[in-house]
Design goal:
Mean pLDDT: 92
Number of domains: 1
Structural class: alpha+beta
Radius of gyration: 12 Å
Strand content: 15-25%
Distance between the termini: 15 Å
Oligomer: single chain
Bound molecules: zinc ion
Helix content: 10-25%
Number of helices: 1
Shape: globular
Number of strands: 3
Order of helices and strands: EEHE
Strand order of the largest sheet: 2-1-3
Length: 65
């Protein structure tokens, strides 16, 4: 099982969103990375990636019971 936690350092909330990004200098073959984010840190992580032009998309994660 994978960790379902927010990717923001120091945050231990469950992730509720998936943030998809790519660093063109590292991911030359078109692979992407994904971070998990809680609602509180979604804007922060998107903004962080946008500033570096790494951001691709975000999507809400459906809650699994
Ligand atoms: Zn968080």
């Amino acid at each position: 099982m994978t960790e379902q936690k927010c990717s923001r350092a120091g945050c231990s909330e469950l992730r509720t969103n998936l943030v998809i990004w790519r660093n063109p200098q590292i991911h030359k073959d078109g692979r992407t990375k994904s971070w998990g984010s809680c609602d509180l840190h979604l804007d922060y992580l998107v903004d962080y990636l946008n500033q570096r032009k790494f951001f691709l998309e975000s999507q809400p994660i459906a809650k699994e019971a």
